[in-house]
Write a structure and sequence with these properties.
The complex is a heterodimer. The longest helix of chain A has 38 residues. Chain A is elongated and about 135 Å long. By secondary structure, chain A is α+β, with helices and mostly antiparallel strands. In chain A, helix 7 crosses helix 10, helix 17 crosses helix 26 and helix 18 packs across helix 21. The relative contact order of chain A is 0.10. The longest helix of chain B has 27 residues. In chain B, helix 1 packs across helix 2. In chain B, 56% of the residues lie in helices and 15% in strands. Chain B has a 3-stranded antiparallel β-sheet. By secondary structure, chain B is an alpha+beta fold. Chain B has a single domain, classed as Orthogonal Bundle (Arc Repressor Mutant, subunit A), CATH 1.10.10. At the A-B interface, helix 1, helix 2 and helix 4 of A face helix 2, helix 3 and strand 3 of B.
């Protein structure tokens, strides 16, 4: 084995020495033979002749010896490489166009694959990611799935479960950070001591919570996120052990997390848990021994070594039976586990797959393009190839040589492509860092590099093999007979070239239609009636620190005072607050009851969002009141409970009747139903593309349920009469006049919120748009190449036609017709392909059908136009030919 | 045909080379001469197959080559049997014996 390798390597790398030795050896043999013949009495010349006869062809023997050394393969490859590089040097024009085309295709693929890699494939940045599950509860009512745990349920799970190595729970909490500079509201989570060990994460600085710190009275310790540590504490390396003030109490900083660790956040986790977009700190949850409370805990568990999802499900069934014995109301509930990887990836998956589809189309077009170029070139080399064939080169040997050139080309294209991808990713990161999760983790890693190498070789095979087969399929005798003439070319070559162009046009068609549909979607989102008017409206959030503000009546009173202060700002036209302003997040929802419309069967669960508003809120955001009155400041706990419903609720549950004066309330009958006093227009709450849900708006001063929904945070909307550059300052002053410790969070204009809600849409639109452009450019370059070449080939024919009296305009039309025919064939196939493909993207569309006739017609027209433009130059060249010159060369 | 030479059956060339080298290191020409002599001129090795076979055997590690000086004072490439070549020779000799015995048996019985 080792000996074999040594000899092969020596034959390759010490080729000259090995060859010389072989020559010496054969020479020695030959001389000995001559001597032998001479000894039998032959003359010198005669002896040599006989020896040569006995010896056979020396070249053949040498070649056989080389073969015996097992290096032929390597030697031919070296030879082909050498030859390939030489032909690249000689055809710079062809190779730079081909390499650039490939670089565009491969580069775009690598860039998109890096995104896919970062978003979907990369393991989460914690060691245990592969065997952590998230556990949810499921109620007996249809639609009540993925419920968080109540603290009581969690403590029973923690006691009874056996399938987990570690178990952790977390819930969102806000912390008012004071004492450093301006008070700032930080979003964080409270977690049990098992939280960090479950994920297996180790802090960048300091330590994580110990068991003793996870109990009431000892929980004043905090772990900071890397971002918070940098932005708020100047990356102070001595931060551990220092004290910070949260919600008015001192907390010990015990650790700082690595930058990659941001769990938990909103990625993929249902909005019921209401997690922060970015978690800034972690504080112990400190559950008491017999905890009570609402379903608000997210639960994660690390499987025991060798544990499976099945063992977890089994464990959860046992847990449910224990739970049911202790708490009879838990009957019929169930629990299920979801791998954390799947949980956190589900949200971002779709646009990425759309991009992946788009980019593979671009890559295919690039490959088809280079295949066309290569085919042209190999046809130009027919004489050379024929000669090689005539001298005894096997067809496979010629194909191998052409493929080597293609692979060199692919490698150059791939190298440039990687550079291009890096540049693209830098641009994407600058443009859309907030829109796509994990975007900042993109980069070249082993998987991306493997992909890049794979794509490079696959494209090399793809664009190299077909032309190589086509160019070598020839009749040697015929080809040699036709001698130096340029005309000819195998019969299958033009067919293959035309097919390549048709395929390119068809694929470009599909991609450009997809981009067109996204443009239309974006347009209809912009023009859709959002139900509110964002001009000159600013919004902010006012979270009340929990220890100071507990009582809902006191909270309502504070919000009212802030509202009064805001109204007295001279530039303010109107102001109000709500649980969530438009684009400010998802409101809470509940099953509702309508005493006038009892449900027909008990399985029917009418559902509506339920949020608080203040008087004047609808006027402030510009949502028109369609019927009835706004709520007013006299609505209180002592007056009739009232509500305003949105048009969607009226349509759905009071069809064809006047809802004013009718009753609607939460499902629990111990709370009185509310009288509907007004109907407001539908406003879009979370995204411009949503269909509005039924909504109930309840005066903040009439919160008789108290425990739900939370009033700890309200979002304010302030509409100004004129553009007021100082409104942010005035708002803060107004808030701090009421309570100087209150943080003003998420200050922003309403139009910015609307804009931000569209970032992801804009991102995929621009990316697919750019890919569509790329496809168009590549296709027109390919078209241009093919038509120019065919004009070049048909020059004698064109000259003859002219000599026989064809008009120049006829020649021009003929060339255009040739290109146009291919384009129309491509467009037709593209239309059929697009009909099938755009159906898959229905969920990315809004306000436009996947088969939108306008887009289809416009894009068909565009492609034919582009194709004719690409044919224009060659057609003009054909028209200007001088028949005399052409025919003389014939 | 009066030609006393017969062509070597497939696969016997390696065996002959190994056997010849078992007598001591030799260069290629001497190997072919020796085979011819010992077989009373019946077997003759074509040079065209001898050298590729030598190189192949060298690559397999059954023989190794070194440069030495020949009887007529010229630089020549000498081949000698390696220990794995000796083993290979035994194996091939054994299987050759079995083969010829079997063939002979069949020829005589029919």
């Amino acid at each position: 084995m080792f000996n074999d390798l040594r000899i092969r390597l020596r034959s390759i790398f010490r080729k000259a020495a090995v060859e010389a030795e072989l020559k010496d050896e054969l020479r020695f043999h030959f001389d000995n033979e001559v001597e032998k013949y001479k000894r039998t009495g032959m003359a010198d010349e005669e002896a040599k002749r006989s020896a040569r006869l006995a010896f056979g062809c020396e070249e053949q023997v040498t070649q056989d010896c080389r073969d015996a050394r097992g290096t032929r393969m390597a030697e031919t490859i070296m030879q082909d490489l050498h030859y390939g590089l030489r032909s690249i040097r000689k055809n710079r024009g062809f190779f730079s166009i081909a390499a650039l085309t490939l670089a565009l295709g491969i580069g775009a693929s690598i860039a998109v694959f890096s995104l896919v890699n970062a978003i979907l494939l990369k393991p989460l940045p914690y060691p245990n990611a592969g065997h952590v599950v998230m556990i949810w509860r499921e109620g007996p009512l249809a639609g009540v799935g993925d419920m968080p745990f109540a603290p009581g349920e969690y403590s029973i799970l923690a006691r009874s479960a056996t399938a987990f190595q570690n178990l952790g729970a977390f819930k969102k909490d806000s912390f008012n950070l004071t004492g450093v500079s301006d008070p700032e509201l930080l979003e964080g989570v409270r977690v049990t001591a098992g939280f960090f060990p479950t994920l297996g994460v180790t802090p960048a600085l300091g330590r994580i919570f110990i068991q003793e710190e996870d109990q009431a009275g000892r929980e004043h310790v905090v772990v900071l996120s890397n971002r918070l540590w940098r932005s708020r504490f100047g990356a102070d390396p001595g931060i551990v052990g220092k004290t910070v003030h949260l919600n008015g109490s001192p907390y010990f900083v015990i650790g700082v997390m690595p930058a990659s660790f941001q769990f938990p956040n909103q990625e993929g986790i249902p909005s019921l848990l209401d997690l922060p977009r970015e978690t800034q700190l972690w504080v112990p949850l400190a559950l008491p021994a017999n905890p009570r409370g609402a379903n608000e805990l997210g639960v994660i568990g690390e499987l025991r070594p060798g544990g499976t999802l099945a063992s977890v499900e089994q464990d959860l069934t046992i847990f449910e039976s224990v739970l049911e014995r202790l708490i009879p109301q838990e009957k019929n509930w169930a629990s299920h586990a979801v791998p954390l990887m799947r949980q956190t990836a589900s949200d971002a998956r779709l646009p990425v797959l759309l991009l992946l589809g788009a980019v593979s189309v671009v890559l295919l077009i690039a490959c088809a393009n280079v295949a066309g170029l290569t085919l042209n070139r190999s046809l130009g080399r027919r004489r050379e190839l024929t000669l090689r064939g005539a001298l005894g080169a096997a067809r496979s040997r010629i194909i191998q040589q052409l493929m080597t050139e293609s692979l060199i080309l692919a490698l150059i294209g791939g190298g440039l492509g990687i550079l291009l991808a890096e540049v693209c990713l830098l641009m994407v990161k600058n443009f859309a860092s907030g829109a796509i999760p994990h975007l900042n983790e993109t980069g070249l890693d082993l998987r991306v590099i493997t992909f890049a190498v794979g794509v490079t070789f696959a494209s090399g095979l793809f664009f190299g093999l077909a032309p190589a087969m086509g160019a070598t399929r020839m009749n040697m005798v015929e080809a040699l007979k036709s001698g130096g003439q340029r005309s000819g070319g195998s019969a299958s070559a033009p067919k293959m070239r035309n097919a390549l162009i048709i395929v390119q046009v068809a694929m470009a068609m599909v991609l450009v239609i997809a981009a067109g549909l996204l443009v239309r979607t974006f347009n209809s989102m912009l023009r859709a009636d959002a139900g509110f008017d964002a001009t000159r409206v600013v919004t902010f959030e006012l979270p009340l620190p929990a220890p100071k503000y507990q009582d809902t009546a006191r909270m309502a009173d504070l919000y009212r005072q802030v509202l009064l202060r805001l109204q007295s700002i001279p530039s303010v036209q109107g102001t109000g607050f709500a649980s969530v302003v438009p684009m400010g997040g998802a409101p809470d929802g509940t099953v509702i009851r309508m005493p006038e419309h009892p449900p027909v069967n008990s399985a029917e669960q009418p559902y509506a969002n339920y949020s608080f508003v203040s008087p004047g809120y609808f006027a402030a955001i510009g949502a028109p009141l369609l019927r009835g009155r706004d709520i007013n400041s006299t609505d209180s706990l002592n007056t009739v409970p009232v509500t305003i419903i949105n048009a969607a609720l009226a349509r759905k549950f009071f069809p064809g009747e006047d809802p004013i004066g009718k009753q609607v309330g939460v499902a629990m009958t111990k709370f009185p139903a509310r009288t509907i006093v007004g109907v407001v227009a539908d406003t879009k709450q979370a995204s411009l593309r949503e269909q509005p849900d039924p909504e109930m708006f309840v005066p903040a001063t009439q919160n008789e349920i108290k425990v739900w929904p939370s009033m700890q945070t309200m979002q304010f909307a302030v509409r100004t009469k004129i553009d007021d550059a100082y409104i942010a300052v005035s708002v803060r002053q107004a808030v701090h006049a009421v309570d100087p410790d209150l943080p003003v969070a998420k200050f922003s204009t309403l139009s910015t919120l609307v804009d931000t809600s569209m970032t992801a849409d804009r991102f995929s639109l621009i990316l697919v748009g750019v890919l569509g452009m790329l496809a168009l450019i590549l296709t027109s370059v390919g078209m241009y190449g093919v038509i120019s070449y065919s004009v070049l080939q048909r020059m004698p024919e064109i000259g003859l036609r002219m000599a026989l009296g064809a008009k120049r305009s006829q020649i021009f039309a003929m060339v255009l017709y040739n290109g146009g025919r291919l384009a129309i064939a491509g467009v037709t196939i593209g239309l059929i392909g697009a009909l099938a493909a755009t159906r898959l993207m229905a969920r990315f569309l809004y306000g436009v059908q996947p088969t939108d006739p306008f887009t289809f017609a416009a894009v068909s027209f565009l492609l034919i136009l582009v194709a004719l433009l690409a044919c224009y130059l060659p057609a003009r060249r054909a028209m200007k030919l001088d028949p005399m010159i052409v025919l003389r060369y014939e | 045909m009066t030609d006393p030479h017969i062509d070597l059956p497939q696969g016997t060339l390696d065996l002959l080379i190994l056997r010849t080298l078992a007598l001591g290191p030799q260069h290629g020409w001497a190997i072919s001469e020796r085979v011819q002599q010992i077989s009373n001129d019946v077997l003759r090795i074509q040079q065209g197959s001898l050298y590729p076979a030598l190189h192949r055997l060298e690559r397999r590690g059954w023989i190794k080559a070194s440069w030495g000086t020949s009887e007529n004072n010229r630089r020549a490439k000498y081949y000698e049997l390696t220990s794995s070549g000796k083993k290979q020779l035994e194996v091939e000799t054994e299987s050759w014996r079995k083969l010829t015995a079997a063939v002979a048996q069949i020829l005589e019985s029919v």
